[in-house]
User: Fold this.
Amino acid sequence: MPRKKLTREITTESPPIIENNVETTDTNRLRANLEKIKEHPGVVGYIFRNTSSAAIDLKDPSKIIDYAIISSSALDAAEELSTLFNLGAAKHITVQGKEVKMLATTIGENKLTIFMEKTVDPEKILKKLRI
Assistant:
């Protein structure tokens, strides 16, 4: 006598799994801090980029390309100089021009450049930036 197979389908609902992604949380905090820094007197704007996105917020949009080039070049130069002279990783660099000062730093996978007037103290900006 052949046996019958009994099959039963059981469906259960479970709450969605929320992954605690530290990098995403840090990036969100960093972006929130940037919004506050943007309002600081003398800050001209910033360029923020990581592996998945980029954000540019400048008061003078006609200078976006110039600022993007100098931002990328400054971060690359800092890495090359640190390697060449065996200095270790640079925490941040500050470049001062005739009218504008630039603060460039890398936080995790995030590369950030903040542009400001020459009179602004970059150390104050760094303190506001820390996550």
Notes: The first helix runs from residue 22 to 38. Strands lie at 43-49, 54-58, 92-96, 100-107, 110-117. Residues 5 and 29 are 56 Å apart (CA to CA). Confidence is low (pLDDT under 50) at residues 6-22.
